[in-house]
Design brief:
It is built from 23 helices and 17 strands. It is an alpha/beta fold.
Length: 710
């Protein structure tokens, strides 16, 4: 604060002439006026105060309450007026008629048109009756008054006779007059309060209607807990309300205009497994994508979690199909696999289907594996290997199927296939990737051999299975010809081998199954993923990954593995394949797969081994040229006393594709006969006897030990 400033000036004497010498000056202290506050500062402080008051939570709360209850009154008045209008006119029937036509239900539209016609006829009849009503009313009143008067007089006469008093004749009439007077008095007393209270009662009535229908903006409605209605049964009104509050303006406006007919958008609510299913025909101006994009909000409006509501697109236009699970039902485990409960179960590669799990409706989900390349993806530790292994275990129960397995994780998940698969590679190193690549190239060589066979030749199924295939695609190893084993270019050996099998393998029963994590263009090239006939995905992180895993068509049709809950939805896969039954109009189906642990999987594998004559499993693929053919034949026979010549050729080809890939039954026969262990017939089929080969090998002198001379 500034100090007062003192100014000194001369005080002139008015009586002294100006020419005279001036008297001594008189000094007077005049304080300076204090500075006025600046109006800008006042305005800023005022504005801040106003903004603070406006933004204060209590102010907002008051505003929300005011708008909410005011909207209840306005909305309730509109709803009551609309109901009155609907009751007096055919507007309701016309609205239902339009809704039925929009849904394409012309049978219902015809019924509503007939009801509208009957309503108009009855209304016309009532109006005609009103023209004659006054005359009938007057006649009725006259007859009623005359009859009542006669009855009262008769009662009075009876009283007079009984009491012997003639004045009692008019006693009933006087009682009636007294009653009328009393009623008039009561009306006079109550009329004032009724007139005063009546408008308030009417206001309370329309407010209650507006509150019941939620006729207020969403931001003004009170935040309420879902705990009371969580898990409540799904009804048409709940579904319509959930759609109305979805945040799509045209949809909300259309439902509001429909009034009570909002349920006309819904098809019948059907029980579907552990939930219900309903088709919703959207009004004009609302796209299915708008509803799909608000899945979480729709689920919350239905008092469900996001993973408990699935939205798909059936064949009908402007229609979405909602599947709504019972609250908590999807968190309950499903039953064990039939592979576990039925030890007599067998497989049929050609006509059978693998019991993989259950769909969301609780129905068994079975997958055909016949001549279909398979791809399954998902984040790490979501059950990918278990889901893939369950399919392989079922197919292993068909003894005609040959497996060649490469597990590039090497954690023992496929160890039970030792003695079941002809090739089993387990490990994550570059050396294991090289062996897996040569295994897939062996599939290509076998495929080409089969393609060159005489027309009509039948071939047993050959399944090449690579788990953790992303390790192969991202392997940096390079061979002696400067060709990389990994990568997604035409120079990549693994990539090209997989592409060749995809292109022509299924025609001769050679198929490739792959499992991979976290699909990207680097660890799952586009041409490889699109070569799979059956594509399945567990939980993923993003929609772009879901498109890589399942394709654009499936994702655009509602498939959303990226919305599965990592860790909570283990073993749940979204499948796009013609090998599994998918509801009409959908591009995918969600399956909760049976979990088979490693111990149980080993027991099932033992049952599969018992169906076979014995399989020698190769753990290292040797591509060298110098080999002892007779020793190799003895090695692939394993412990079986005899093996079909065709199986011996397949095992030799798996052992060394370069050496034995071009062998024919004649070549095998020549080598064995030269060693004195020629094949012979058993049960009408040519076989190679283990005892004969062992005896010939014991006498083998080492000459001609290199194959390829045959």
């Amino acid at each position: 604060m500034t100090d007062n400033v003192v100014h000194l000036f001369k005080d002139p004497d008015p009586e002294q002439p100006p020419a005279l010498a001036p008297a001594a000056p008189t000094l007077t202290a005049v304080p300076e006026a204090p500075a006025k506050p600046r109006p800008v500062r006042v305005f800023v402080r005022t504005r801040r105060a106003v903004v603070g008051v406006v933004k204060h939570e209590r102010t907002r709360q008051v505003a929300r309450v005011s708008v909410r209850h005011g909207s209840y009154v306005i909305g309730g008045t509109r709803i009551v007026a609309r109901r009155a209008w609907d009751g007096r006119t055919g507007a309701r029937y016309e609205r239902l008629l339009r809704a039925a036509e929009a849904a394409g239900n012309y049978e219902a539209a015809g019924e509503w048109e007939e009801r509208l016609h009957r309503f108009r006829e009855q209304r016309h009849k009532r109006r005609m009756d009103l023209l004659t009503a006054p005359e009938k009313l007057v006649k009725g009143a006259a007859y009623g008054a005359g009859g009542s008067l006669g009855v009262l007089i008769a009662i009075g006469i009876a009283l007079a006779i009984a009491n012997k008093d003639v004045t009692d004749v008019i006693t009933p009439l006087m009682a009636l007059v007294e009653l009328i007077r009393l009623l008039v008095t009561l009306v006079t007393i109550l009329w004032g309060p009724l007139v005063a209270v009546g408008p308030w009662l009417a206001l309370a009535g329309v407010w209650a209607v507006g509150r019941q229908r939620g006729a207020a903006p969403q931001w003004a409605l009170p935040a309420h807990s879902r705990s009371d209605d969580a898990g409540a049964p799904i009804t048409p009104s709940i579904v319509v309300t959930a759609l109305r509050d979805l945040g799509v303006a045209p949809l909300r406006r259309a439902i509001t205009e429909m009034g009570d007919a909002g349920a006309a958008m819904l098809g019948p609510i059907r029980i579907a497994g552990c939930g219900v299913e309903v088709d919703v025909t959207l009004p004009s101006g609302v796209s299915t994508a708008e509803v799909q994009g608000r899945r979480r909000k729709l689920a919350e409006n239905l008092a469900r979690h996001e993973h408990e509501v699935f939205i798909t697109l059936p064949t009908a236009a402007r229609t979405v199909r909602l599947w709504i699970a019972d609250s908590g039902a999807l968190d309950e485990p499903i039953g064990p696999s039939p592979l576990v409960t039925d030890e007599t179960l067998t497989a049929d590669y050609t006509k059978g289907k693998a019991p993989w799990g259950q769909d969301l409706r609780g129905d068994a989900a079975a997958l055909s594996l016949y001549q279909r390349h398979l791809l399954i993806t998902g984040l790490s530790n979501q059950g990918k290997t278990a889901a893939l292994r369950a399919l392989a275990l079922w197919l292993a129960l068909d003894k005609s199927v040959e497996f060649r397995v490469a597990d590039l994780k090497g954690a023992g998940d496929w160890a039970m296939f030792d003695g079941l698969a002809t090739v089993l590679i387990q490990g994550p190193t570059d050396e294991h990737v090289i062996e897996a690549t040569e295994m897939v190239e062996g599939l290509v060589a076998e495929m080409e051999r089969r393609l060159q066979a005489p027309p009509g030749t039948k071939f047993d199924p050959l399944i090449g299975l690579v788990d953790e295939a992303q390790v192969a695609f991202m392997c940096p190893a390079i061979d002696g010809d400067k060709r990389p084993y990994g990568g997604s270019k035409a120079t990549s050996r693994y990539f090209m081998a997989a592409r060749k099998v995809h292109n022509q393998g299924r025609a001769v029963n050679v198929t490739l199954w792959q499992g991979t994590q976290d699909p990207t263009d680097q660890n799952l090239p586009k041409l490889v993923r699109e070569g799979a006939h059956t594509r399945a995905s567990l939980a993923l992180g993003t929609e772009s990954q879901a498109r890589m895993a399942l394709g654009d068509k499936a994702v655009d049709g509602g498939a959303a593995p990226n919305l599965l809950r990592p860790g909570l939805d283990k073993g749940t896969v979204v499948v796009a394949s013609d090998g599994i039954k998918i509801p009409a109009g959908q591009a995918s189906i969600t399956v909760r797969t049976h979990y088979i642990d490693t111990k149980t999987a080993t027991a099932i594998a033992e049952r599969a081994k018992a169906l076979r004559d014995g399989v020698t499993t190769l753990h290292v693929i040797d591509q060298g040229e110098d080999r002892d053919a007779l020793a190799d034949i003895f090695g692939v026979l394993g412990d079986a006393p005899r093996v079909l010549t065709a199986d011996v050729l397949k095992r030799l080809s798996a052992l060394s594709e370069k050496t034995y890939g071009t062998w024919t039954p004649g070549d095998l026969k020549q080598v064995l006969e030269e060693a004195g262990a020629g094949p012979y017939k058993s049960d009408g089929r040519m076989v190679v006897g283990r005892e004969r080969v062992a005896r010939a090998l014991a006498n083998h002198d080492g000459e001609g030990s290199t194959s390829a001379e045959a």
